[in-house]
Write a structure and sequence with these properties.
The chain is an alpha+beta fold. It has helices at 25-33, 69-76, 118-139, 163-171, 179-185, 198-218, 235-239, 261-270, 290-294, 308-315, 338-352, 355-365, 370-383, 394-412, 428-436, 440-451, 456-463; strands at residues 44-54, 82-86, 89-95, 98-102, 108-111, 141-144, 188-193, 224-225, 228-229, 248-249, 275-278, 281-284, 319-320, 322-324, 328-334, 388-389, 392-393. Strands 1, 2, 3, 4, 5, 6, 7, 14 and 15 form a 9-stranded antiparallel sheet that branches. Strands 8-9 form a two-stranded antiparallel sheet. Strands 10-13 form a two-stranded parallel sheet. Strand 8 and strand 9 (228-229) form a beta hairpin. The chain is globular, with a radius of gyration of 21 Å.
């Protein structure tokens, strides 16, 4: 779940605070067209979330207090971050193209800068964990990189002082049974990648949507719910099935003939809104249409028309497995340890940034029917690598993806590290899991029952950073 005030990858200059009036849907499609990059200018953005806990008893950290999340953010400012304020409180940080923000229950998110290669991504991630663990130790805070909280209930999680989250909490139960769980009990890793044209965006969107459940199974890391193993490989990915059908899922429109920027704009215009920001405050527009806003007939602001910042905000409240802004966001993976966080952008870069590999991925998924994709989306969180599509289980399909991603990264070969290491090294944790024929969730089940004897305290001690 990602809904940050600042946008971690790239929009055209200052788009997040762009007050240019919006006159037509064509203007909105042009914004996405402006996101196209040259083949040599493709960049990589990586985002991830983790639970912030007390290091003493592993309870969720509160926002307030000397050992709370605001104190953590204040401490991180010593590393050159500027504060993001709301209602006189620090609710985020910004440093160049890199942001630290808070999800609804205090999950700490790194929204990484757009970077030219995975070595830079690795350096950014290492710096982030060095900084947050240094401040965290001083405040007796720890960080849990797990896709779903192992024991908490949504009602028992702390609330962050962000107006938009209050609007969403009120609206989400009207649309699905697990929206509040998604907001408060889940953490993800996300890869943000570029496109070079509208046609390239459409190709990458279709491939990424098709493979999204496969990637969810490969990165599954959430087998717990309410203190027990619940038989799921990814409880986080399962929760997304019952959040809000108006804004989630595998986006069937992307597989329609002629799909492009304008078709996605139409989808976004008709997707219900959450809010509008005016004068530093949030106006509740939950359930209302941006298309009506464009016509000047929004019930919450009658007679007023939107500006570009309103559209940018609205795009962040749509949650398909692959989301289009002025770049593509791949959103189906559970968070894992730092090595698995890096493996996600490595996989997607290897599959989508090399033309030969992208062609092979298109050929791989071209015969998957809509019903096949829908069935896989439902089975992947339950069955993980044992799920099937196209006559192949996801274990072998995952091996095929990692093999092709390795070849794609080798052909891309933008920069070698000292000692000759290329970007393929970041796929090694994924290869190791596939060699063991298990997911992170499978390894957790084994450790929980055998090594930790069903003791959640030992689970926390084994996983927190």
């Amino acid at each position: 779940f990602t809904l940050s005030l600042h946008h971690s990858f790239r929009m055209p200059a200052a788009a997040a605070e762009d007050f240019t009036p919006i006159e037509s849907r064509a203007q909105l499609a042009r914004l996405m067209e402006q996101g196209a990059k040259t083949k040599t200018g493709l960049l990589i953005g990586t985002e991830h979330e983790k639970f912030t806990l007390s290091a003493r008893d592993f309870s969720p950290a509160p926002f307030d207090g000397p050992q709370g999340i605001e104190a953590l953010l204040r401490g991180l400012m010593r590393f050159g971050f500027d504060p993001v304020m709301e209602g006189g409180r620090i609710t985020g940080l910004w440093r160049g193209g890199e942001g630290v923000s808070l999800e609804p229950a205090g999950q700490l998110e790194l929204s990484g800068a757009p970077l030219p290669d995975l070595h830079d991504t690795a350096a950014e991630l290492e710096r982030h964990f060095r900084e947050v663990t240094e401040i965290g130790r001083a405040l007796e805070l720890a960080f849990l990189p797990l896709g779903y909280h192992p024991e908490a209930a949504a009602d028992n999680m702390p609330r962050m002082p962000k107006e938009r989250y209050a609007i969403m909490r009120a609206y989400m139960p009207r649309k699905g049974r697990r929206g509040l769980e998604m907001m408060t009990l889940t953490c993800t890793t996300q890869a943000n990648l570029d496109y070079v044209s509208e046609a390239d965006m459409a190709r990458k969107m279709r491939v990424a949507l098709s493979l999204s459940p496969v990637v969810a199974a490969l990165f599954a890391n959430s087998p717990f719910r309410r203190g027990k193993l619940n038989g799921m490989e990814s409880n986080r990915y399962a929760a997304w099935e019952d959040v809000d059908p108006d804004r989630t899922g595998l986006l069937p429109l992307a597989f329609e003939p002629g799909f492009g920027f304008e078709r996605y704009v139409d989808y976004a215009l008709d997707a219900p809104m959450y809010f509008i920001r005016r004068g530093g405050k949030y106006v509740d527009c939950a359930g209302q249409s941006f298309r009506d806003f464009l016509a000047g007939s929004l019930p919450a602001l009658p007679g007023e028309k939107p500006v570009m910042a309103d559209w940018i905000d609205h795009l962040t409240t749509l949650y398909p497995d692959v989301r289009l802004k002025t770049y593509l966001e791949m959103r189906s993976a559970d968070v894992g340890d730092p090595d698995m966080i890096l493996a996600l952008p490595a996989l997607w870069v290897g599959l989508l940034y090399d033309d030969s590999t992208l062609n092979q991925m298109e050929a791989l998924v071209k015969d998957w029917r809509p019903g096949d994709r829908t069935r896989l989306r439902a089975e992947a969180p339950k069955l993980g690598l044992a799920a099937h599509i196209g006559g192949c289980d996801l274990l072998n399909l995952g091996r095929k993806l990692v093999h092709h991603a390795t070849l794609g990264l080798r052909r891309r070969c933008v920069r070698m590290q000292a000692g000759g290491a290329d970007e393929t090294r970041y796929l090694e944790p994924l290869t190791a899991l596939l060699d063991l024929e298990e997911t992170q969730s499978g390894a957790l089940r084994r450790r929980f029952t055998r090594d930790w004897q069903g003791d959640l305290r030992q689970l926390y001690r084994g996983l927190v950073l």
